[in-house]
Amino acid sequence: MSTVGARPGVVTWAGLALIAAAAAVLSFASVRELAAAASYPAGLAFLLPVVIDTTAVVSSRIWLGRRGSPAAVSYARTLALTAAVVTIGANVAQHALAAYRLVPAWWLIAALTAVPPAALVAVAHPRHARRTRRARRARRARRAGTGGPAGMRTGPARVGLPDTPGATAGHAGPDRAVPDTASGPDGVASRQTRARAPGTASAPERTDEALVAELRAWAVER
Q1: What CA–CA distances, in Å, run from 195 to 163, 175, 199, 203?
Q2: How large is the angle between the packed helices 47-64 and 70-100, nearest 10 degrees?
Q3: Taking the complete model, does pTM exceed 0.70, yes or no?
């Protein structure tokens, strides 16, 4: 009977739970005693192992479960290994101090005091990095939607301009009447202004009497 791919049985799970519980209790007790020896308050010494072990567990789940981007998984792996080294080092230091009845050195006290704020910064960093990446993606999306700096208009749009030359308001073309603003009151053009081509002289206007005289002369000649 093949056992490849079979799930662990009850005995396996029970053994794993027993090992994890025993290791957690022993490590917790050693780190708490070390915190008390390093001048942590007696009522708060238990928080040091809580900080270290919780950081190790959470970062290990992110690392081994591949939860998040590759950068987040790599960061979680580094954090989990660092927390494991700190836990092991704290256990070794506590048992060495207790066995030889030694007083913790100043550098050991300084290192243990720096653990809680360092853990806080390490846990807050991924959240801030994720917000920063979201903000960058939002800015890139906005730039892509508006065409970016290269696609922005640098001047006012010319709306409603005609395509034919000489038809723009305020510009006279060859077939456009040029108003004589000085010929009438208040800048009003004279009614006698007519459209004329450039370069042509204006012919004198003939009255009705002159036309009648010309017609009579033409009739006499006939």
Answers
A1: 21, 7, 12, 13
A2: 150
A3: no
Quick one: CA torsion of 118, 50, 44, 31, rounded to 10 degrees?
Answer: -90
* CA gap 79, 55 in Å, rounded: 8
Which positions ≥6 away from 208 have C-beta within 8 Å?
none
Q: Which two tokens stand for residue 14?
A: 């029970």
pLDDT tens column, 36-56: 999 999 999 999 999 999 999
184 Cβ partners below 8 Å, 6+ apart?
Answer: 190
**Of 78, 2, 87, which Cα lies nearest the Cα of 53?**
87
Phi and psi at residue 24, in whole multiples of 5°?
-65, -40
- Looking at residue 174, the DSSP 8-state letter turns out to be T
Q: Answer yes or no: are the C-beta atoms of 49 and 32 closer than 8 Å.
A: yes
Q: How many CB atoms lie within 10 A of CB 81?
A: 14
Q: What SS3 class is residue 171?
A: coil
